[in-house]
Amino acid sequence: MRWELGHSVGTIPRSSDLRSNGCCIRLAAATLTDVASRFFYATHIVATKLFAMSRILRASLIGAACVAVLDIAGAMVLAFARSGAEPLTVLQSVASGALGKSAYSGGITTALIGLAIHTGIALVAATVFMLVASRVPALTRRPWLWGPVHGLGVWAVMYLIVLPQRWPQAFPNFEPGQLAGQLFCHLFLVGLPIGIVASRVLGSRDRVD
Question: Per residue in 154-194, pLDDT tens?
């Protein structure tokens, strides 16, 4: 009896109100589900892009490190064999592109500048190949071919375009001994390592998927 007095008939929800509330709840649930689905899809896309970028960045850094070491080592060996030049002089010669003749009197400081410039060029060469290889997977399947082809392209850019702009009286230089050393270094100490790294780091996606 107290329950009946404490709850008037007017406060009891009608069936139409219950149906209306149910529709609102279902609509809200569907909206939330759709928003959550879109959010997780966008998150997946962003994560995939970031992962792909991280692979390219990792491959570029590894490739650049390999090239920086192998190419400068090859240049030092060839310079010593030709003229007895010391390793420090080789690095200073790289720095002379930016500093001029004063690079040869700068000691270890200008040698380190030369090393930094050399490494920067190696990073550009590696990054260009990795970006293209990420779009053209065929390049990662035949690193023994496409790596040296890329190295030949790097040689052409450096020795036919860049260096002649800085030293037009000395480049291009097609003396057989010089040319053979340049091509060897760029095909097998620049292009090939970049191709192998691309195959290992970027090509692994194709093997896993």
Answer: 999 999 999 999 899 888 889 999 999 999 999 999 999 99
Which candidate, 127, 121, 124, 74, places its Cα nearest to that of 95? 121
Instruction: Give Cβ neighbours of residue 78 (< 8 Å, ≥ 6 apart).
Output: 181, 185
Cα(195)–Cα(133) distance, integer angstroms: 9
Q: What is the pLDDT of residue 6?
A: 45
Which residues have C-beta within 8 Å of that of residue 175, sequence separation ≥ 6?
none
Q: Which residue in 180, 205, 184, 183 sits closest to 54, CA to CA? A: 205
Q: Is the pLDDT of residue 2 over 50?
A: no
Give the number of other CB atoms < 10 A from CB of residue 112: 14
**Is residue 95 over pLDDT 50?**
yes
The rounded distance, in Å, linking the Cα atoms of 119 and 115 is 6
Of 156, 145, 120, nearest to 198 by C-alpha is 145
Residue spans of the domains in the chain: they are: 14-75+116-208
Q: Are 119 and 66 in contact (CB under 8 A)?
A: no
pTM of the model: 0.74
H helix runs in 84-136, sequence order: 87-99, 107-135
